[in-house]
Amino acid sequence: MHQPPLPSLAATDPEIAHLVEGEAQRQFDKLRLIASENYVSQAVLEASSTVLTNKYSEGYVGRRYYEGQQFIDPVETLAVDRAKELFGVEHANVQPYSGSPANLAVYLAFAKPGDTVMGMGLPFGGHLTHGWSVSATGKWFSSVRYGVRADTGRVDMDEVRDLAREHRPKLIFCGGTAIPRTIDYPAFAEIAREVGAVLVADIAHIAGLIAGGAHPSPVGHADVISTTTHKTLRGPRGAMLMSTAEHAKALDKAVFPGLQGGPHNHTTAAIAVALREASAPAFGEYAHTVVANARALAEALVERGFDLVSGGTDNHLILVDLTSKGVAGKPTAKALDEAGIELNYNTVPFDPRKPFDPSGVRLGTAAITTRGLRPEQMPRVAEWIDTVVTATAKGEQGEVLPTVSAEISELLSGYPMPGWA
């Protein structure tokens, strides 16, 4: 059952309670490989569901528009101080509701509609809010996109430099949503300085790896750092903006009153808890194991004939091109879900297929690492994936999917999950 139990919810709204219990059971039974998902701790769960959700707190610590902030101000102060200490930054804002509003605040702070901005194109692993056409950031700003080399699957820094020199963007985003390799922050910083751009490092996917010392940090290179607080960081669904002291006022003003009203105080408290957890030595071990698991899984997939974008991974994320397997990403993702393996279909660089029916799948190892799985178990995970992909390509799922699902449930039954008992 869900932990902690939900007796009041069950009595008041049994339909919702039933769905919550079902989701908890699903999260326990599934091999969760969606790169942007994780499990939060019991402490983070509890902080997220406190009476702090009852309080309105527009403004910042010591400068609120509502009275009764005697306990809220210390909560936000703890979150800010812990973020600054953990990441080694001069300024942190923990109020953004999620990653996309956090990125919008960056635009509001440093650019005007029509200005030129630059980011990785969505089909190459960038994020919607880095200037892609269907996003407000692509509609309100003149967007220039860089990609990856066809032969290596890695960011072409020569292209980035040439585009920056030609277009002189106000903002340059580095980072994204499907980048399996280490980001060269010093090289991006050099280019940004040359053209007078503000460099924004979007570390939403790798924040936990950076905090745990398993990935290079953009601090000292990027003017602004944007991140969600879940994914590898194992916090609640929220976001943060960090920067040098020089940009603190502009960012704070952009978040409030520029884009949003009162912060979600229960989320702020949960962020503070997650940041404290991330400062413990055990978190560093977790972060390095996330990377070790990803590399072990990537190697096992390559041995089974899978084509990986860039040939492997440096972080938690693996991007697989299924073209050589004779099956597309969408039917593969659906079959794997039925077999107990949760991931998402995803475009790959230079993908000839449409985004809603792409050639690839994206997977990550953060959640299974939190459950306690180790590199020695990754070959078995690769075997399960291969079995399902092969059966899907042949249209012979039949008994294969239930068999794999049962084997996965048996394995995971020995690994506890926060939020389920």
Automatic annotation (TrEMBL):
Q: Does the keyword Amino-acid biosynthesis apply?
A: yes
Please state the pathway this protein functions in, per its UniProt record.
Answer: Amino-acid biosynthesis; glycine biosynthesis; glycine from L-serine: step 1/1; One-carbon metabolism; tetrahydrofolate interconversion
The protein's matches in Gene3D superfamilies, at most eight in alphabetical order, are given as: Aspartate Aminotransferase, domain 1, Type I PLP-dependent aspartate aminotransferase-like (Major domain)
Q: Name one Pfam family in it.
A: SHMT
Coiled coil ranges (UniProt) are: none
Residues that bind (6S)-5,6,7,8-tetrahydrofolate: 122, 126-128, 246
Q: Which PANTHER family match?
A: SERINE HYDROXYMETHYLTRANSFERASE, SERINE HYDROXYMETHYLTRANSFERASE 1
> Under which name does UniProt file this protein?
Serine hydroxymethyltransferase
Q: Whose protein is this, by species? A: Actinoalloteichus caeruleus DSM 43889
